[in-house]
């Protein structure tokens, strides 16, 4: 009996010591080490890749967001604020709902086939809106000028980037709405166009949040002059 109690006590003691050591190693020291390395070597990424403007955070460069006017009474969705560069559509499906506003709790692809009537309707409606929104006096946008990313959502529905072609398509409208010279806005787009990763992976892209942040600062300065 005494041996059995002693053995049980030793096993419990060994288990308690192992629990304490593993908790210290895996629950305290390891997280502190990983966090320390991340903060030291990858400070920006470890903190969510935040984009700041005038000393405050305006979002993350990894997540897209919309630029809309205040919601009008009687409407279910707000109208885009055409002073700013607009992102690509966000139509990812969540559970029994559709994310059209880059809401983080709903992410995913539409899962609509290429010959889906609903997808075709969405693309045509988006194309018409892009043409109408970006046509300016003296320049009517042609359907052939509308790039694919202007009328389709990404796989996540939260893509923070647009193609340089879509950014270029919006420069005349953005310049007119902000009373800027088109050349100033074109230069802004060029400065915020990232090339292919390592020179061959992916496609050139423009981060909409970073571009609009730079645009806001340019407007606040009264243009580049």
Largest sheet: 3 strands, antiparallel
Strand order of the largest sheet: 5-7-6
Mean pLDDT: 87
Summed up, the helix count is 6
What portion of residues is helical?
40-55%
Oligomer: single chain
Helix/strand class: mainly alpha
Query: Domains counted in the coordinates: how many?
Result: 2
Strand content: 5-15%
Question: What are the low-pLDDT stretches, counting only 5+ consecutive residues below 50?
Answer: none
Care to count the β-strands?
7
Listing every helix as H and every strand as E from the N terminus to the C terminus, the arrangement reads: HHEEEEHEHHEEH
Note the gap between the termini: 93 Å
What Rg do the Cα atoms give? Answer: 25 Å
Outline: elongated
What is the topological layout?
Elements: H1 2-41, H2 43-46, E1 50-53, E2 56-60, E3 93-94, E4 97-98, H3 117-134, E5 161-162, H4 164-177, H5 182-191, E6 193-194, E7 205-207, H6 208-220
Antiparallel strand pairs: 1-2, 3-4, 5-7, 6-7
Helix pairs in contact: 4-5
Summarize the structure in words.
By secondary structure, the protein is mainly α. It has two domains: 2-44; 51-220, no CATH class. The protein has helices at residues 2-41, 43-46, 117-134, 164-177, 182-191, 208-220, and strands spanning 50-53, 56-60, 93-94, 97-98, 161-162, 193-194, 205-207. The strands form three sheets. It has a three-stranded antiparallel sheet. Strands 1-2 form a two-stranded antiparallel sheet. α4 runs antiparallel to α5. It starts with a helix and ends in a 5-residue tail after the last helix. The model has no long low-confidence stretch (mean pLDDT 87).
């Amino acid at each position: 009996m005494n041996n059995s109690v002693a053995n049980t006590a030793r096993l419990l003691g060994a288990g308690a010591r192992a629990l304490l050591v593993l908790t210290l190693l895996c629950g305290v020291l390891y997280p502190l080490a990983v966090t320390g390395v991340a903060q030291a070597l990858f400070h920006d990424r470890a903190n969510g890749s935040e984009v700041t403007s005038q000393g405050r955070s305006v979002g993350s460069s990894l997540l897209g967001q919309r630029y809309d006017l205040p919601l009008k009474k009687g409407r279910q969705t707000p109208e885009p604020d055409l002073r700013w560069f607009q992102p690509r559509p966000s139509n990812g499906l969540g559970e029994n709902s559709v994310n059209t506003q880059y809401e983080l709790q709903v992410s995913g692809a539409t899962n609509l086939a290429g010959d889906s009537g609903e997808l075709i309707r969405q693309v045509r409606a988006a194309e018409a809106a892009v043409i109408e929104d970006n046509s300016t006096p003296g320049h009517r946008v042609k359907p052939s000028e509308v790039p694919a990313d202007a009328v389709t959502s990404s796989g996540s529905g939260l893509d923070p980037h647009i193609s340089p072609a879509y950014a270029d398509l919006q420069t005349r409208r953005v310049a007119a709405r902000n009373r800027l010279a088109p050349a100033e806005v074109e230069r802004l787009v060029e400065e915020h166009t990232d090339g292919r990763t390592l020179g061959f992976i992916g496609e050139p892209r423009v981060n909409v949040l970073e571009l609009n942040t730079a645009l806001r600062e340019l407007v606040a300065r009264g243009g580049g002059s």
